[in-house]
Protein 1
Amino acid sequence: MSRVVNTDTLLGAAGLAASAVLLVSSYRQGATVFLLPGDAPPFLVPQLFLYVLAAISAAILIGGLRRGGVRLDAKNWRAIAVGFATVVAATALMKPLGYLVVAPLAVFVTVLNLGYRNHLVNAAVSVGIVALLYLLLVSFAQMPLPTVPGLGI
Amino acid sequence: MGLDAFVAALGLLVDPWAILIMLLATVVGMIVGALPGLGTVTALAMILPFTFVLTGPQAIGLLLAIYVSSVYGGSIPAILINVPGTPQSAATTFDGYPMAKAGKAAEALGWVTVASTIGGIFSMIVLVFAAPQLAALAVQFGSIETFALIVFSLTTIAWVSAGNPLKGLLAGVIGVILSTVGVDELSGADRFTFGNFALSAGFHVVPILIGLFALSEVFVTAGQGISTTAKPIISTGFKIARFREWWAMKRTILRSSVLGTFLGVLPGVGATAASLIGYAQAKSASPKPENFGKGEPEGIVASESANNAVTGGALVPTLALGIPGDAATAVMLGALVIHGITPGFQLFNRNPDLVSFIFVALLVANIMMLIVGAMMAQVFSRVLKLPHALVMGGVVALSLAGSYVIRFSILDVWVAVMAGLAGLLLRYANVPLAPIVIGFILGTPLETNLRQGLIVTQMQPLKFLESPIAVGFFTITLIVVFWPLLKRFLPKRRTID
């Protein structure tokens, strides 16, 4: 099984699929561009590098099939999924709810997900870090972050 | 560097804000460098958004201080808990931790700090003399020669990065492709935007950096779990050895500083290799090699003066040619461009005061590293006691805010999140991440110069070979790529036990 499904075969297949999709897209978009005589086409470099990407991906895929690679089973996938979902949710909610509401929650859940069990310290640090960052960025550096509706901060 | 330019550079440094910012950056750089898993590039990526409100010199001072001090900071946990904070300090564990276990942690920190400072200042002196010479040479470079130089640098960096060279090359190519997203400046055509107007401006380097290095570290930490049993930290202090003992190390310091500076100039070799090579050279030249690995100060001095000497060396091609030597200098290059400073001959020609400021700021950053390192050694042992989960929480808060404030766009935060996921998967597949950043930063100049070259040669790429400089770079590139094959045909050297 590890001969077919391993990091190298997955990487090679993903690289091949991505290069194929982007090459098709580049040829479609490229066909609509008007070029003056002597101009270098806008998709020349992307296409050149996409072909190189496809060739390298194919080599990695074949190498993975021949030699086998590292299996992706010795990881705590649940914790990774929770960590990723936390950041995705924070990103999705940052604009509607504001940075000062979303970020402390994201920090708290991340720290909890990483196994830290002192909830009081976790809550204090989550609020403290975010407040400090907010002061630094918004008050000191004048760089606005998404505000909490109704509060304006 | 002329006296006038030197005085002007000192004038820029007289700004009390610049000094204060550099001092704070030195502390932050040491802390981030000392926290295992973060490192120099992450430190630079996370601090980059804060530079937008600073003046050019202040931003340069901040980034240089972070760069220099984070490389040094990695050696603190290497000595105190036998875990290098950054890969550059791996060789420091060999003798640093045995010294600390023998009750000589204060002495070990003293050796590390002073050796790092000497290595850093040595490479700064080389930078002062070598960068203008190299920049003057670059005047002869047209678009074809610049394209060939970028191909050479990118290929070498990717090929020699780490592990499988093919994967390094794959990472470099991904970086170049990412740099082509958005509206093409020459023709105005939309590229890979898939109808999304927000993508027309292309990707910004900061969210990609934050995702690849900071957020992916959070996900990797979640995947491997955090050990609840903290490593015992040896109580510390700071003690500098007598001058007589330092004088006895002069050959080792000089050898490692020269090695580190030279390896820093070469694309892709980096501080990790420099410190390991410096250590190996010191061991082989020592009359008592059996003492290495058992708490020999010469081992610490060799690795630390080498890895800090890389900082100035890597800045030589970055400033002179606009070609970064490693991922950290790639971030520095990106930051300079963001602040409207384009490295290369024009920078030396038109803005000598700023160039001199960079040299002086590098010197000041190294001196600050010595002072802060000496004064805060006790504090850093406490930083290492911070629960890693809380540190990662801080990384999440900073990543969300840092990627947003670049262009005040939520799309940039999404880019950081996706880059974080990609970084995690690429790390599991043993793909080095640094070439992605270097490919991304060099992608635009590579494309511009290739297309200009094609226009000049009326779309005949073979005419590129009429330039001897370009032929030289292409030849070296081919030798680097095909070296593993060429090695098979070379007569094998007999190994001596």
Protein 2
Amino acid sequence: MTAEQAVAPVTAETIEDALLSFLAERVKTSVTPDQDLFSSGLVSSMFAMQLVVHLEEAYDIAIIGPELKLDNFRTVQAMTGLVLRLHDASADASADASDAVGDV
Amino acid sequence: MSEQVASGRALIGELVGDQAGSWDLARELPAELLHKLGAQGLLCAEVSAAYGGLGASSQHNGELTAYVGSLCSSLRSVMTSQGMAAWTIQRLGDRGQRRRYLADLTSGLLAAVAFSEPAAGSDLSAMRTEIRASGDSVVLDGQKIWVTGARYADLLVVLGLHGDGATGDGAAGDGAAFVVVPASAPGVHLEPIADPLGCRAAGHAHVRFDNVRLPASSVLGGGGQSLSLLFTTALSYGRISVAWGCVGIVRACLSTATGHAKRREQSGKPLAQHQLVARHLAELLVAEQVSTLVCERASQSWDSASPDMVIAAVLAKHVSAGHAARSAATAVQVLASAGAQDGHVVARAYRDAKLMEIIEGSNEISQLILAQHALAILPDEHPNESR
């Protein structure tokens, strides 16, 4: 597909901003980028799952398998890092070859 | 409803016919029925065509699930297990695992998902089942209880502690995994539950794993994930599926009670003309509408990948299970002696629906989750409490 992407460029800054406002809207509290969302009690695993779905939909990425660690969702910074990593990986078509698990 | 799902529905209607009552009494579903429906992809209809599935939406699969639930909650329970296993594999597996296992699940093999343990129901921190690395293999040890469909299953998808987080901080850390276990593997011991209260033919069993050695590639996505996230992920599918199954229970109760009240006469007029009975019919209709709407909403969230799907699934499950339990009691009341025999559709509904208030998050656990959600979405400034 060659369609031009109309969305804002995906940078650490845009992801972080979008996440902060998503969280502010969802948990009705403003958080800081480095705040531990779990230990502060703001986020349950139920909400972590919502974050997974939100990030996948918003950035067209798949957060599966080994990426489903709470550490990836602990702070806005961690989620930003996750999105950037997966976004870059999906942009780079050759990244799929890294999957070495396959014995039958 | 897509063509394939619609023709699947017709096939199910044909194959089930009027046999659900006798399956309930026999406490067993015909294995060939399950394998046949499995091979058509109907037990996990949301698996995409790329993996051999029907690629149904949550909405369409939901309606199919409700239909099966209206006929036979035992069969619907097996469908929920298979769908949950497929969803878990799709969600957590790497590409090789998806290809292999989803092909299995759409070609006639059956799967069950094992969560609960003697000490660990809702309390995940009490989970003890362990998946230990051992060279190129993993070794599984533990005990799971009330595994729906286990008696029919070729594959068991088992949740356990795995990796570094396995010691100590199990519930809060990233030390868990799902592992796919052939039911025939040495060290897998099944103990069927002889007389469950409801869904009597759903093949519930306790399962013990003694030193079960498996290839490391059986651990979905390599493992080392968050226990609570894995639990929530798998259960979200189970909750929507159970919720739709409850819609089916309510529909069966509505049509049976209404039909009876129309035909049966007492004191010179049909039961439906007696006001106290008429109120029961109104309540059944309300239950059917409300539970359908709440399930449709959850499925819409699911199909549009909305973050709300997690809470919407809990809400749908909770609302529909409550309606199913009350509707079943109401239907038995309307049918009275005509429905008061094991195997009868409303008698089955009465026992089956009660289990739906327990499975995939009891009423109370669902309420705790919903209460937490209510607190989380409370705005910082709340004008109603201005003083």
Protein 3
Amino acid sequence: MTALIEAEGLARVYRSRGGLFAPERALRAVDGVSFAIARGETLGLVGESGSGKSTTGRMVLGLEPCDAGAVRFAGAPMPPPGTAGWRSARARMQMIFQDPLGALDRRLPIAAQIREPLDIHSRHDLPTREARVRALLGDLGLSAELGRRYPHELSGGQRQRAVLARALATEPDFLVCDEPVSALDVSIQAQVVNLLVDLQAKLALTMLFISHDLRVVRQVSHRIAVMYLGRIVEVGDADDLFAAPAHPYTRALVSAAPAPAPGRRRAPRIVLSSDPPDPSARPTGCAFHPRCASAIARCRAETPALATIAPGRRVACHVVAGAGTHAPLGNAA
Amino acid sequence: MLRYLAVRVGRALVTIALVVTFAFVVLRLSGDPALIIMGPEAPPEVIAAFRKAWGLDEPIWRQYIDYFGAILQGELGRSMRDGRPAIALVAERIPATLALTIPALLLKLGIGLPAGIYAALHRGSAIDRAVMVAAVAGFTVPSFVLGLVLVLVFAVQLGWLPSGGQESWRHAILPIITLGTGGAAVLARFTRSAMLEVLGQPYIRTASAKGIPWRAVVTGHALPNAAIPTVTIIGFMVGTLIAGAVVVESVFSWPGVGRLLVVAVANRDLAVVQCILLLVAATMVASNLTVDFLYGFLDPRLRGARAGSH
Amino acid sequence: MVDASTAPLTRRVPPAVLLAAFWVVVMLSIALFADAIAPFGLTRMDLGHRLAPPGAVAHWLGTDELGRDVWSRLVFSIRISLLIAFGATAMSAVVGTALGFLAAHFRGLTEQAVLTLADFQAALPFLILALAVLAFFGNSLPLLVCLMGLYGWERYARIARGLAIAATAQGYAGAVRQLGATPARIYLRHILPNIASTLIVSMTLVFPEVILLESGLSFLGLGVQPPMTSLGNMVGYGREYISRAPWIMLAPALTIILTTLAVSLIGDWLRDRLDPSLR
């Protein structure tokens, strides 16, 4: 079955003027990212800030132009942003943002904003639109009364559900969620995540779920891709990746995530050495090598490519993918 | 800092070029320049000569360049009324206008600044309230009304001062007062709010809490910081002074550049209008540059920019 | 918790602003019903009662040098001055906002062009620019209104551009764009209503300045031309007779001052209420 979303070699470079005499600096936010998402599947995209995951999400939707690479949706190339073709394609794919209050127009009641995609794409006639809005409110656990209120009168969780309702109005096939729960209280996070899982099952949604929080990603995703400084370093099945992370960075991330059941013995925490990286000054070779405890000489010289180490699991690491024995670089924590 | 100034000078030159372009465009749009500037009664040879001199039969881009060149050489045409070069006419009136605007500017600064500072330091006092009321009056009472009321009171009713003309120094008193006081009130209000904003900053309280006498806090910390936004508004005031001079000179029949402009506009004496337009633009640009220069001096962030970037 | 919006009107609004609003309503009524209010025609002359002082029953504000009733002329002047001021304020708001949106939407060269034009406008005192245009093109009412309609556009343009950019970058406008809305829909249905209050406050601040500008031009004889009359015109005419009949000049002068003051007070109050960030 062909994938719904195919991303091939995506790259996005931000150039900043260094001033009259300083050289131009290039910030490679996304550097050669490729993946495919099958219909009905959720791919989780994990990484720290600066890893390029949000930029990737925007590029997949066509919200940002690709400096290199291409995105295909249902086999057809994504129209360039701002064109009429792109605009009508929005009905089939949507985005959920981190800040629900910022994503809503404070002057309009919630119900009107949920209705807006139907107005924009001229779906159905007016009474049907109203009925659809009511149905959406109900599906997302919002009362009709809440629909009459304004964004600032709702709680954070309610707002995010309103944004979700709006995104689902045109029954899109594909949803990109960019840190949808990061700005919410922990207890509300669980609610919204459960809601997403339910919707995913009910509507057979295809999703790209972006977050820095590994636990949340694990709940929602079928597969997970881990990004570091603009490149994917590991891809695999969600539960497998969690149980047996391969890439040193993934191992550090997983070990840092709180244990699901307190009291159970778990592996000692891996603490990464040195500081988080500066995206505009990438290390040579494998971008992770300055902080990696298992780095060898080859890691500094050569950027590893994603290699399959097990069915459904790919890792970009010289050490894990079996580069043989070489002198370690000695980056012990 | 050098870079900042270079950018500012560049923008000033662009602005002047834009004004010249504006004059050119408006001149061309308003009809046959030869007829307009020379007047419809001028003999055909004169018009033909004018066309040749101004290159009016050449392609438009060529005319533009020639126009620019003519301006740079000071060739701005002759007044319709008496045939004298426009530049000479305008130049001989400049001293009269300066005789009003410079004292008015000093008056504005002399009243406005101290009043504003005092009002800020003694917030809620009678002077503070007076300043706020005066500022509102200064804004809402147009200069021609103020001038006429002053004439009514001082010239007509009391007979102390003359009402028009330029015969003696006493004739200058009412015009200068009219020109200076309106803006003084606005400046006072602005200075007051700049000072209040600075005085509300935490570092002022810290300085005072350290035991520094209040007077030293004000002169050492508050005033220099409040000076920065105030300097920009002074540059702005030059523009209003020029506009004000036009009206005030007409009210008091003062033979300055402003009065000349009004008469020239009424007579559609375009050479003179054009000349004054460029003069005003040059003055505004020069005053803005001066303000920018002062700003660069006063604001240590701009002064020390190069040192900090190493 | 006391809900401020349920407090009685007189406590929410300072008395000065209420008076100002009342004055504005009076002015608007006079302008609208000028024909019915004015006892005499605009140019109707009563040569037997020239330069009559105020207080007479027939001419309660006096007459001018041609025996024309000052009150009648005042009424018509208010209408013309307010008409020009409203027209000009509306025009400059529309032009300025549109240019601001264009600059925000297209960025790049368009934005630079708009900003440079705005700088150019700020480089010269508007009075001088206006006089130059009037000199070159001659005087006519449509030209005058268009000219006044360019006063202050750069303020709206800067506001509209700034707020539109902020809205598109991370906020609601970006979200709606992402829904597939056309730019027109984004600007007109979302951004414009959200910035309307800021723009309206600017309009109340520009309006009195337009009145002052038009009065100044008319006073100089370069604005509204006879037989039409405006407030500035009347002051200009009254100047000749300042020693003999000061009321000719004082009535319109006072009207200018009070109207400008009233609108400024309302504008200041609105600004404090709606948008403290504008201070």
